[in-house]
Design a protein that fits this description.
Beta-galactosidase, Chain A, domain 5, eight-stranded antiparallel sheet, 29% helix
């Protein structure tokens, strides 16, 4: 007869069908395990074991004990099949709301924690699921968090049912994990299964054979994932940004529970990196409480960010902490607080080549203009807010046909230029095509004037017909309205108005052109056609309140070199005037070794963006060398 055994290094299938007393006797213990636990288990005394186990967990936490917050809810968006657990978890922490069809009693007696959790414990410990399902990690971590944070608040039988089921589930899941990480599983789910589950299981089931090694392995996985997926300044890799709150959740959860047990989860470098990651993550929470670049996932990042800021000791008077506080005020419907007049303590923008990610941002307020851009895939992804309002969200696509042949684009883009100063933030991305073909995507956000330049520069073409099209997906509540007289497109939402100007497209609709600019079906589409060695396609989005209804004029400028006019496939210049704002946008597509002149302004630079004053003089605030 096969001996029944249970530990993190061995598992007998017969143990799941064993009685409670047999189950306890089957557990293998480490040499230094708590004597009371070992004694009760060896005799199969369930009642004594429960008392000893609850006391052991309570003593392990000591004065550092924290209340139960069901922080597993931070991860529920990663497990949509576990939606039925959400109201039960909310009920456990006392925030569940009655259904619309449920009448609220006139007088409701206060229920204890043990009275609120029977349905949750039954749901968590029902028929065991196979560990191959995506649900295993969510339910298991919910169970481990309950055990770690509530101990004596549970009735003895509630505690035992949860403890036995969680131990079995943890051993099964950990032993069933393949050595190689499945790339089809989201990073945050892998982190929960390979890092958080072993860490929490080793913590809760301390003393069982293999638990200490299991916890050590979990800590190692958490730490390596934190360091390996972020830049040295804390910028998370673009692969993570789409699900950033979900990836951050297990790191913060483990930190909170580890501190409750007076257990150090991170070494010094990892602790500093986690704080930097939190500081980089908070600005990616929009003023509406949604996560930037979430790609349709309905994430609620505020709960995990609040906990992360607290656990990292982030000061509220600093720029990042103040922004988080302002977002919470905005979500609650309170007016924004008056900004502190102590200057800019740190720039609100950042860029990382390693992470393939950049954040362009005007300031630290909730009314800020910002552009989050991830460029690790076939198309760069944009998340644009204007005066704190979502404007653009999704893939910035491009289609390019040269000489009648569609061009295959690279799978990712490289940042070739980054500049951040008091006037503007600027990033330039590059994709190299066949031959000498280069496509550069330009993003420039004005820090004071409330406008955004988005442009594509195509160069290195062997003098052929170029057909170009790009699309920008608008946020859900933005309605595009084409102007009747010009090719301007107005972007409207309740209490908000922006304007889009295709500078290389003829302004008046009465003038025929092969180009086109349209706003329909929730997106802006720009189409241009050219014959030659290159093409420049600039688009200005403007949301300055004082200019929202002002008269706008734009035109293509003549560019000269050594006294002769050159074509727009060599260098292009454009001028936009809206009321008292006049802009010059210049781009060189081919370096000939000579200086150029546009609107009376002489330059050797590849890119120039400047203001044009009333006298016609150009005051450049962005200059990029070739």
């Amino acid at each position: 007869m096969t001996q029944v055994s249970l530990s993190f290094s061995s598992y007998s299938a017969d143990v799941s069908a064993a009685s409670d007393a047999e189950f306890l006797k089957a557990i293998e213990w480490e040499r230094g395990a708590n004597p009371s636990l070992k004694a009760a288990a060896s005799t199969g005394d369930v009642k004594a074991f429960i008392a000893a186990c609850q006391q052991h967990l309570r003593q392990a936490k000591g004065d550092a004990a924290t209340g139960y917050s069901a922080s597993i809810l931070w991860s529920h968006a990663a497990f949509p099949d576990e939606a039925e657990l959400v109201p039960l978890l909310e009920e456990a922490i006392g925030v569940a709301k009655p259904r619309k069809t449920q009448r609220r009693p006139a007088v409701k007696a206060t229920r204890t924690f043990a009275q609120r959790v029977p349905s949750l414990i039954y749901a968590l410990t029902g028929e065991p699921q196979t560990v191959q399902t995506d649900n295993a990690a969510f339910a298991l971590i919910a169970s481990l968090e309950l055990l770690a944070c509530t101990d004596n608040k549970l009735r003895p039988q509630q505690f035992w049912r949860l403890w036995r089921h969680s131990l079995l589930s943890a051993v099964r899941l950990i032993r069933a994990l393949p050595e190689e990480v499945d790339p089809t599983i989201p990073t945050d789910v892998n982190l929960m299964e390979r890092g958080e589950v072993p860490f929490l299981a080793g913590l809760v089931f301390e003393g069982i054979a293999g638990a200490s090694l299991t916890m050590k392995a979990g800590k190692k996985e958490l730490g390596s994932d934190l360091i390996g997926n972020t830049d040295t300044d804390g910028t998370p890799h673009a692969d993570l940004v789409e699900r950033l709150p979900l990836w951050l959740a297990p790191l913060v959860r483990a930190t909170c529970i580890g501190r409750a047990f007076d257990l150090r989860v991170w070494n010094r470098d990892q602790e500093e990196r986690l704080q930097s990651v939190v500081e980089r993550s908070i600005p990616l929470c929009r003023p509406d409480g949604r996560a930037a670049l979430s790609n349709g996932l309905k994430l609620q990042p505020l709960p995990v960010l609040n906990a992360a800021a607290e656990v990292c000791g982030l000061p509220e008077i600093g720029p990042v902490g103040s922004y988080l506080k302002s977002v919470k005020r905005a979500i609650s419907g309170k007016p924004p607080a008056r900004p502190r007049a102590d200057g800019v303590l740190s720039m609100p923008s950042n860029q990382s080549d390693f992470a393939r990610f950049a954040l362009l941002r005007s300031d630290w307020t909730v009314q800020a203009d910002s552009v989050a851009i991830a460029h690790h895939r076939h198309f760069p992804q944009l998340d644009v807010t204007a005066s704190g309002r979502p404007l653009i969200h999704g893939d910035w696509t491009i289609k390019l046909t040269i000489g009648g042949v569609p061009v295959e684009l690279a799978e990712e883009w490289t940042c070739v230029c980054w500049q951040s100063d008091p006037d503007a933030d600027y990033i330039e991305l590059q994709m190299l095509g066949p031959g000498k073909l280069r496509v550069e995507r330009i993003v420039m956000l004005s820090r004071a004037e409330r406008f955004l330049l988005l442009a594509d520069s195509v160069s290195g073409v062997p003098n052929q017909r170029i057909e170009y099209q790009s699309e920008l997906p608008l946020s859900d509540d933005i309605q595009p309205r084409p102007d009747t007289a010009t090719r301007e497109v107005q972007l409207a939402a309740k209490g908000f108005r922006a304007r889009a100007f295709p500078l290389a497209v003829t302004q008046d609709r009465v003038q025929s052109t092969p180009h086109n600019f349209a706003g329909a079906d929730g997106k802006l589409t720009l189409t241009q056609v050219a014959q030659g060695e290159g093409l420049f396609a600039p688009l200005i989005l403007d949301w300055g309140v004082s200019r929202s209804r002002g008269n706008a004029q734009w035109r293509t400028l003549t560019v000269t070199e050594d006294g002769r006019v050159i074509g727009p496939d060599i260098a292009a210049g454009h001028r936009l005037k809206i009321d008292d704002l006049q802009l010059l946008i210049y781009r060189s597509l081919k370096d000939t070794g000579e200086s150029r002149a546009v609107l009376g302004y002489h330059t050797w630079n590849e890119t120039v963006v400047g203001r044009v004053n009333k006298k016609g003089d150009v005051d450049p605030f962005l200059m990029v060398e070739a």
